[in-house]
Records
---
Amino acid sequence: MHYESQSLIVTTREPFGKRVPIDLCDRIFRSLSPMFAHSVRMAVEGTSSSPGAQPSWLRRAGDVRVLGFDEYGPDTLLNVEAPMLGEAAEELYSQNEFWPTKPSPDETAIHVFAKALEDVTRGNPESVLYDRHLLKRFSAFNRVFEKGVVSVGVPVAPGDEHFSARMDESSLRNARELSERTPPPQQIRITGKLDMIRHSTRSFALITDDGHEVRGVLETQDWTEEIKDFLGKRILVLGKAVFRPSGSLLRIDATGVEGGEGQSLLFAKLPRPRALRPELVRTKASDRRGVPAFFGSWPGEESDEDFESLVREIRH
């Protein structure tokens, strides 16, 4: 399997060049390594985490190796190598059906991570490149900044010499805010035509009555065999609706699938979160601490609807 050489640029308050302290290396590697694999899984399966062992293609795709450090002016180049996804996950790329977020076969896990980082930096609430679990991984990167790191620049495509995606304190704030805005998953039932099944990634696609394509993830790969007779037919999916920070549907984590003929038309609509997390209250409270930081200037400023939303959020 071919490994592609790449570099990340690390800017620190104290210039270390290629003589980086070992505890700082430890923080960087421990924080970055899982994010590469989680980002690839999100792009391929539509979920950044799943119970059980990693599939073999994901282990290969996330196998990033360290080559060493170099000086880059006052900054440090972290030199690594990673397999191209078309080779690491050859069994996936040999199949035609795929989600539109499929990375290019000549990209690596680092490029996929960088694209997710770009969306976080933009504060994109409609991104399909992260879910709440991955956003929390981004937020946890503050452990690296505690060691004097200012930013980590990452290439977003082969040949990117400008390290176009940048992990810094601003992007971490965005990750935290996006995570906090994301509505919690909720139990749902939804009907539609089963349009696609993929055994290798436990994925399926559902077409609702109004033409929306819904992405779903099955609980186990065994289910792909059990539901194949439903392909092209109407089904009922039971599970959890997972939302984007905007409140739109990201995917369905399916816990059950059965025939959908004769089911209520109420289940034919795209699920919406019961309540969006109140962004306004959080903005007003950004420079406060303790109880005032959570409730803003409450009581007195919030409407009954805002208060009810806060109560629901606390319960989740």
---
Amino acid sequence: MDLDTTQFCYGILSGMLPPFLWLWFWLKEDHLHPEPRSRVAWCFFFGMVAVLIALPLQYVASRFFFDDFHRYIVWAFIEEVLKFGAVYVVIFRNNLMDEPIDSMIYMLTAALGFAALENTFFMLGVIKNGDIVSAVITGNLRFMGAILLHVVCSSVIGFLLALAYYHRMATKVIAIIAGIAIAGTLHATFNLAIINGATFNTLRAFGWVWGGVVLLVILFEEVKAIKPKQPKQVANQINSLT
């Protein structure tokens, strides 16, 4: 069944609108010193581009890992590395950081861009099968779970980078490696719980994600309180990730 114009537009809208709503929500956390909208837009866009890179890499990985357990672990880490790569290309490489909270804002923005295109592809596939009711239900579930999973996982990396903002490059590198390791593990754990198919495991996984969201709100407040121990430490900020 081919998609008509109305179905295609619905697929785009249902895929893109939830991430945009979450982006609006999270950007309010940086209301004191909001980031330029052009940078936010580029991070979101490169997050979407990361999906197009992830798909062929995940296909190649599936040729080497035949069981679901290892395949979903590898796929999760591919996505987390690429989301970080999107922010690195747009922000870190171009020295565009000016306060600790920026790393969390940009990481979750790229994550929402990734989720937006991934969600759109998924929704178009559901609509193509002709089950609109299923599309509505699935869209709500992804709004509550899968999209926020990307945000929570990527924000872990952003939070650790925020903690390392006024520290040396070696500390920042460790923060990146640790962040990707934690984010990939959380992502893979969620995916494996969902694939398992058991209702209890699925509900528990969604509970973990929402618990992560609550924790994320708290971490934002913690990051806002980070100050340099010495004024000259400002020169040693995360912009040195070049």
